Amino acid sequence: MKNKKNRYWLTASLFIFCAFCFYMVWAVSQPYNAAPDESMRYQIAEFILHKGTLPFGGDPVIRNPIWGISYGFTPILPQIIGAVFMKITSFFTKDAFALLVSVRFVSVLCNTGTVFMCFKIAEKLFSGLYRWIFVISIALLPQFVYIGSYVNNDAMAIFSTAIIIYSWITGLKTHWSRSSCILLSLGISLCALTYYNAFGFILCSILLYAAERLITYRSCGTLEHRQEFRQETGRQAGLMIALVFLLAGWWYIRNAIIYDGDFLGLQTSNHFAQLYAQDKYKPTDIYCGYTQHWTLIQMLIDQRWLQTSFKSMIGFFGYMQLNLKSLMYYMYLILWGGGAVGVVSWVLNGFIVRTAKLDKTKLLLPAAMLLTIPIPIILSIYYSYYSDFEPQGRYLLPMLIPLMFFITRGYQQIIEKLLTSVWIRRVVQILLCLWSVAAASYSYFRIILPHYVH
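RE: above sequence
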């Protein structure tokens, strides 16, 4: 068993290293501002480097002349870390591209960290080649690779979700040991300091913890045990609240102080946009579902919100002008659809009934992961309808790990039920892995490399 685990982590380590190199190659292959909002994000890191302080969101130095705002109003942890990397790089060179890559390196590391955490998650949830199907389908999804190649908050947001999910697994298994509580606090803190579209994981963490505590409390027999359980829960909750407040609370306190109580910074950002944005980009006039008087169905179907969001979640590069072959999108639709069918079969074959009879807490992990899938979709729809019509799949990527968990579980159900030959099963599993390798390779060598590297 120990040798088998060692082999797993030896091959996993090799894959993680190769993934890191692949993400790094993407990062050095694109010019400045070739990706969405990179210039606005990079300006934040530059400001911190040169001024030695965090910016006021409305500072004219970083305020975009088109949108009238900056990203300084919302969490900027990746740019803070990027400024540190820029400082280190500046000791060796002042080359502008080298400084840019040093900030992009934050995204490279976050993607690599996500892959590492996915191997940890896979080790707990899957066996054999299903572990590799799960990890590779995430690590080599073209859009995931892409967000690891430029300056953004998306990569760290997904990394935080990987930490949170792993802490859920260990927390449920150990009834929230100190280490799992600390890990969950770290994941929540990183999530809180990156992107609001990943905040569903914070909500689901609260619900998951509360549900596990309630189920376990009801199994306590004596009054003495219940009293000990309440004390233990108080210590766990107190530790996590204190850590999250210490690690992430400072940002929201700072916002509340400098933005007159607007701890999220969103209202102040809208105020500055209304004052300084170009006319057609002001919040009251911007192109969105609400200002265009579309119905929700019109926006989703007629304006191709669903189609564009799906395609750009798979892979749509640059400022939404570099797309994959149509056949590749259809292939992903078929593969993900097949996994979804397998999940339905998995549930209908008695997973919920059997699990509930054995241990109700084992239902909590898939339930929490299922809940995290619609939340970023709803937030993205809301944003496109009321704020700015931007059907971009990167806003949906926080649901990537839970989605791939269910799709992998669905394929496991299909393969194990329909294929009796061990060799045929192995071939299908390998082909699923090779598809992800081929899609990522095509994206770089046939799209990114020819377009940017001459």
